Amino acid sequence: MARKKTIMKHDILNAAFKLAMRDGFYNFTARKIADELNCSTQPPYLEFDCMADLKHQSIKKIQAHLLKNVFSRHYDDDPMINLDLAYIHFVCEQPMLYRTLWIEDKQSIEEMKEFAHRLGMERLRQKPEAANLPEEKLHRILVGNWIIASGIANLMSTGYIKTTKTQMKEILNAQLADFIYNDRFNPANDVDSTDDWFTSDENLAI
Length: 206
Hints:
The chain is 67% helix and 0% strand. The protein has 206 residues and is an all-alpha fold. The protein has 2 domains: 51 residues, Homeodomain-like (Arc Repressor Mutant, subunit A); 118 residues, Tetracycline Repressor, domain 2 (Orthogonal Bundle), CATH 1.10.357. Helix 4 runs parallel beside helix 7, helix 5 packs parallel to helix 8 and helix 6 packs across helix 7. It is elongated, with a radius of gyration of 21 Å. The C terminus is likely disordered.
Protein backbone atom coordinates (compact mmCIF):
# COMPACT_ATOMS: atom_id res chain seq x y z
CA MET A 1 0.00 0.00 0.00
CA ALA A 2 1.42 3.37 -1.04
CA ARG A 3 2.29 5.77 1.74
CA LYS A 4 -0.16 8.66 2.01
CA LYS A 5 1.33 11.99 1.00
CA THR A 6 1.40 14.32 4.01
CA ILE A 7 3.20 17.36 2.57
CA MET A 8 1.23 18.98 -0.21
CA LYS A 9 2.29 21.45 -2.89
CA HIS A 10 0.67 24.38 -1.09
CA ASP A 11 2.56 23.46 2.10
CA ILE A 12 5.86 23.68 0.24
CA LEU A 13 4.91 26.96 -1.42
CA ASN A 14 3.87 28.45 1.92
CA ALA A 15 7.17 27.38 3.46
CA ALA A 16 9.11 28.84 0.52
CA PHE A 17 7.13 32.09 0.81
CA LYS A 18 7.85 32.28 4.55
CA LEU A 19 11.56 31.64 3.97
CA ALA A 20 11.81 34.28 1.23
CA MET A 21 9.93 36.87 3.28
CA ARG A 22 12.20 36.27 6.27
CA ASP A 23 15.61 35.56 4.74
CA GLY A 24 15.34 36.61 1.10
CA PHE A 25 16.60 34.43 -1.75
CA TYR A 26 20.23 34.26 -0.66
CA ASN A 27 19.76 30.79 0.87
CA PHE A 28 16.68 29.77 -1.07
CA THR A 29 17.47 26.06 -1.37
CA ALA A 30 15.52 22.81 -1.20
CA ARG A 31 17.35 22.01 2.05
CA LYS A 32 16.29 25.29 3.69
CA ILE A 33 12.69 24.84 2.58
CA ALA A 34 12.70 21.24 3.80
CA ASP A 35 13.96 22.47 7.17
CA GLU A 36 10.95 24.79 7.38
CA LEU A 37 8.72 21.72 6.92
CA ASN A 38 10.81 19.28 9.00
CA CYS A 39 11.06 16.92 6.06
CA SER A 40 13.54 15.66 3.49
CA THR A 41 14.30 17.50 0.25
CA GLN A 42 12.21 15.00 -1.71
CA PRO A 43 8.80 16.79 -1.51
CA PRO A 44 10.00 20.09 -3.08
CA TYR A 45 11.59 18.23 -5.99
CA LEU A 46 8.52 16.02 -6.46
CA GLU A 47 6.00 18.87 -6.46
CA PHE A 48 7.93 21.46 -8.51
CA ASP A 49 9.76 21.17 -11.82
CA CYS A 50 12.89 22.79 -10.39
CA MET A 51 13.97 25.37 -7.82
CA ALA A 52 13.54 28.16 -10.38
CA ASP A 53 9.89 27.14 -10.74
CA LEU A 54 9.42 27.18 -6.96
CA LYS A 55 11.12 30.58 -6.75
CA HIS A 56 8.89 31.91 -9.55
CA GLN A 57 5.75 30.80 -7.73
CA SER A 58 7.10 32.20 -4.45
CA ILE A 59 7.65 35.57 -6.13
CA LYS A 60 4.08 35.49 -7.46
CA LYS A 61 2.85 34.81 -3.93
CA ILE A 62 4.94 37.70 -2.60
CA GLN A 63 3.49 39.98 -5.30
CA ALA A 64 -0.04 39.01 -4.23
CA HIS A 65 0.95 39.78 -0.63
CA LEU A 66 2.30 43.20 -1.65
CA LEU A 67 -0.86 44.04 -3.59
CA LYS A 68 -3.08 43.12 -0.65
CA ASN A 69 -1.03 44.41 2.28
CA VAL A 70 1.29 47.12 0.96
CA PHE A 71 0.06 48.76 -2.22
CA SER A 72 -3.59 48.77 -1.12
CA ARG A 73 -2.88 51.14 1.78
CA HIS A 74 -4.32 54.63 1.50
CA TYR A 75 -1.94 57.58 1.76
CA ASP A 76 -3.35 59.96 -0.85
CA ASP A 77 -6.38 60.26 -3.13
CA ASP A 78 -4.20 60.52 -6.25
CA PRO A 79 -3.67 56.90 -7.41
CA MET A 80 -0.09 57.44 -8.59
CA ILE A 81 1.01 59.45 -5.55
CA ASN A 82 -0.62 56.83 -3.34
CA LEU A 83 1.38 54.08 -5.07
CA ASP A 84 4.61 56.06 -4.70
CA LEU A 85 4.05 56.66 -0.99
CA ALA A 86 3.17 53.00 -0.41
CA TYR A 87 6.37 51.97 -2.19
CA ILE A 88 8.49 54.43 -0.17
CA HIS A 89 6.98 53.17 3.08
CA PHE A 90 7.62 49.57 2.02
CA VAL A 91 11.30 50.26 1.28
CA CYS A 92 11.73 51.99 4.65
CA GLU A 93 9.80 49.39 6.64
CA GLN A 94 11.13 46.24 4.94
CA PRO A 95 14.56 47.09 3.48
CA MET A 96 15.77 43.48 3.44
CA LEU A 97 12.78 42.26 1.45
CA TYR A 98 13.08 45.26 -0.87
CA ARG A 99 16.74 44.46 -1.60
CA THR A 100 15.86 40.81 -2.16
CA LEU A 101 13.11 41.58 -4.66
CA TRP A 102 14.45 44.59 -6.55
CA ILE A 103 18.25 44.56 -6.23
CA GLU A 104 20.01 41.31 -5.33
CA ASP A 105 18.30 38.38 -7.10
CA LYS A 106 18.36 38.34 -10.91
CA GLN A 107 15.20 36.26 -11.37
CA SER A 108 13.29 38.36 -8.88
CA ILE A 109 14.49 41.63 -10.43
CA GLU A 110 13.05 40.67 -13.82
CA GLU A 111 9.73 39.52 -12.40
CA MET A 112 9.38 42.55 -10.11
CA LYS A 113 10.20 44.88 -13.00
CA GLU A 114 7.22 43.49 -14.92
CA PHE A 115 5.04 43.60 -11.81
CA ALA A 116 5.94 47.23 -11.05
CA HIS A 117 5.39 48.27 -14.67
CA ARG A 118 1.92 46.70 -14.82
CA LEU A 119 0.88 48.20 -11.50
CA GLY A 120 2.35 51.60 -12.32
CA MET A 121 0.63 51.80 -15.70
CA GLU A 122 -2.67 50.77 -14.13
CA ARG A 123 -2.45 53.53 -11.51
CA LEU A 124 -1.14 56.13 -13.96
CA ARG A 125 -4.08 55.58 -16.31
CA GLN A 126 -6.40 56.43 -13.40
CA LYS A 127 -5.10 60.01 -13.43
CA PRO A 128 -7.46 62.10 -15.62
CA GLU A 129 -4.60 64.09 -17.17
CA ALA A 130 -2.79 60.89 -18.17
CA ALA A 131 -5.71 58.62 -19.07
CA ASN A 132 -5.65 59.31 -22.82
CA LEU A 133 -1.92 59.64 -23.36
CA PRO A 134 -0.18 57.23 -25.76
CA GLU A 135 1.54 54.14 -24.36
CA GLU A 136 5.03 55.43 -25.15
CA LYS A 137 4.51 58.65 -23.19
CA LEU A 138 2.96 56.80 -20.26
CA HIS A 139 6.06 54.62 -20.13
CA ARG A 140 8.34 57.68 -20.07
CA ILE A 141 6.29 59.24 -17.26
CA LEU A 142 6.46 55.99 -15.32
CA VAL A 143 10.25 55.75 -15.71
CA GLY A 144 10.70 59.32 -14.46
CA ASN A 145 8.37 58.70 -11.55
CA TRP A 146 10.20 55.47 -10.67
CA ILE A 147 13.54 57.29 -10.57
CA ILE A 148 12.24 59.96 -8.18
CA ALA A 149 10.27 57.60 -5.92
CA SER A 150 13.20 55.16 -5.70
CA GLY A 151 15.58 58.01 -4.92
CA ILE A 152 13.41 59.22 -2.05
CA ALA A 153 12.90 55.66 -0.78
CA ASN A 154 16.59 54.74 -0.80
CA LEU A 155 17.75 58.00 0.78
CA MET A 156 15.12 57.76 3.51
CA SER A 157 15.68 54.06 4.23
CA THR A 158 19.39 54.68 4.85
CA GLY A 159 18.71 57.72 7.04
CA TYR A 160 20.47 60.02 4.58
CA ILE A 161 17.47 62.36 4.44
CA LYS A 162 14.34 62.97 6.48
CA THR A 163 11.21 64.30 4.79
CA THR A 164 7.60 64.74 5.80
CA LYS A 165 4.66 63.25 3.94
CA THR A 166 3.77 66.74 2.70
CA GLN A 167 7.28 67.29 1.34
CA MET A 168 7.27 63.92 -0.41
CA LYS A 169 3.91 64.69 -2.01
CA GLU A 170 5.20 68.07 -3.23
CA ILE A 171 8.20 66.43 -4.92
CA LEU A 172 6.16 63.59 -6.41
CA ASN A 173 3.40 65.87 -7.71
CA ALA A 174 5.93 68.27 -9.22
CA GLN A 175 7.81 65.57 -11.12
CA LEU A 176 4.62 63.94 -12.39
CA ALA A 177 3.31 67.27 -13.68
CA ASP A 178 6.66 68.01 -15.30
CA PHE A 179 6.81 64.67 -17.11
CA ILE A 180 3.18 64.86 -18.21
CA TYR A 181 3.22 68.42 -19.54
CA ASN A 182 6.84 68.75 -20.71
CA ASP A 183 7.18 65.26 -22.17
CA ARG A 184 10.52 64.48 -20.55
CA PHE A 185 12.62 61.56 -21.84
CA ASN A 186 11.15 61.92 -25.33
CA PRO A 187 13.96 60.95 -27.76
CA ALA A 188 12.75 63.71 -30.08
CA ASN A 189 13.82 66.26 -27.45
CA ASP A 190 17.41 65.00 -27.22
CA VAL A 191 19.97 67.51 -28.46
CA ASP A 192 22.36 64.66 -29.24
CA SER A 193 20.83 61.19 -29.05
CA THR A 194 24.30 59.61 -29.35
CA ASP A 195 25.54 61.29 -26.17
CA ASP A 196 25.08 58.32 -23.86
CA TRP A 197 27.38 59.38 -21.03
CA PHE A 198 26.72 56.29 -18.93
CA THR A 199 28.06 53.79 -21.47
CA SER A 200 30.66 55.93 -23.23
CA ASP A 201 34.24 54.69 -23.23
CA GLU A 202 35.33 57.93 -21.57
CA ASN A 203 33.06 57.44 -18.58
CA LEU A 204 33.71 53.72 -18.29
CA ALA A 205 37.36 54.60 -17.84
CA ILE A 206 36.70 56.96 -14.93
